[in-house]
Amino acid sequence: MVSNRPEDAAAITGRVGEHAGTPAAGISVAARRVDGPDLDGTPKQWSAESDDRGEYRIGGLPPGRYEITAAAAERSPRISVDLKRGEEIGSVNIGLP
Description:
By secondary structure, the protein is mainly β. The chain has no helices and eight strands. It has strands at residues 10-17, 28-33, 45-49, 55-61, 64-70, 79-83, 88-89, 94-95. The strands form two sheets. Strands 1, 4, 7 and 8 form a four-stranded mixed β-sheet that branches. The radius of gyration is 13 Å and the shape is globular. The termini are far apart.
């Protein structure tokens, strides 16, 4: 059973940057849950946009395994993250090719 209590929600934070280390603003970052589909069989996905410092935060996530990607790049790296109840994982940084 998944809890909807705010204190149980998890979050992922990080930065998106160009290959030279320059922050990438306005990049859509997605967290797709890969271990717990909706009742209709489709995976859940959450997203956020990076700010002018390239930073993003995706909150309100239920515990589980997520694949993190940036929409700006054709070959965006895919980062796997396992979240526990109430956990906030930082430094999930994405380097754009």
